[in-house]
Design goal:
Layout: E1 4-7, E2 14-15, H1 17-28, H2 38-44, H3 49-60, H4 68-82, E3 88-89, H5 93-102, E4 106-114, H6 115-126, E5 133-137, H7 148-157, E6 164-168, H8 171-180, E7 183-187, H9 194-199, E8 204-206
Helix pairs in contact: 1-4, 3-4
Length: about 220
């Protein structure tokens, strides 16, 4: 029996693509870039806010990233105010989380979203003190796919990698989980496809959140 599940946030727990699109488009508009499609944003996201802005600028034609600092600073300011724009949990997530809690299994979040916004999103969607550990992007902790965030969560929970499942929706998540030595599950309801998840060594892929329970025992 596994003792904990570590979840990615965007594209796994929360359907947040419209929030990311809204804030990035708004940040880049004064610079003459965008708007970009939802489909483009599925591939801009996943590796932190800085990489999100770099990818959007590059797609808009600023391949030298001349406007990166201005765009990035503006994005952080806009996102701090609008990180909950049209954000909602995916169907089946709340029943999954409740089932895990009923089994006494710890639940944690590891996101490349800025830490304060990660906390705000989680607490807005699920309430305070619902998750055992919440960790977003922080100074002095490398972002995913570094497994360092997983190790810090394991330390807080007093567990080893063999005790957990790691659930995410992108190649970055699969690399993070595998790098930590965890059993890694790909979420097919998120931002990327089955091919990407399997090519990055997902131990399993699931179409609906409650299917994760099949891998707990």
């Amino acid at each position: 029996m596994k003792k904990a599940v570590i979840f990615d946030l965007d594209g796994t727990l929360s359907d947040s693509i419209h929030s990311i699109k809204y804030c990035t488009d708004k940040a880049l508009e004064p610079l003459g870039y965008g708007p970009f499609s939802v489909e483009q944003y599925y591939y801009f996201v996943g590796d932190g806010a800085a990489n999100l802005i770099k990818r959007a600028l590059t797609a808009g034609g600023d391949t030298e990233l001349t406007h990166f600092k201005e765009a990035y600073d503006r994005y952080l300011e806009i996102f701090a105010e609008n990180c909950m724009y049209q954000v909602k949990p995916y169907e089946g997530i709340i029943p999954l989380l409740n089932a895990l809690k009923e089994k006494g299994i710890a639940i944690a979040v590891l996101s490349n979203k800025p830490h304060q916004e990660t906390i705000r999103v989680i607490e807005s969607l699920f309430g305070k003190n619902y998750f055992d550990v919440i960790m977003g992007q922080q100074e002095n902790v490398p972002i995913k796919p570094s497994p360092q965030g997983v190790f810090l969560i394991l330390e807080k929970l007093g567990l080893g990698a063999e005790d957990i499942l790691y659930l995410g929706d992108t190649a970055t998540d699969m690399k993070t989980g595998k790098g930590a030595g965890a059993f890694t599950v790909g979420a097919l309801w998120g931002f990327r496809d089955k091919k990407e998840l399997l090519e990055n060594h997902a131990d399993a892929v699931i179409e609906k959140p409650l299917q994760l329970l099949d891998y707990i025992a």
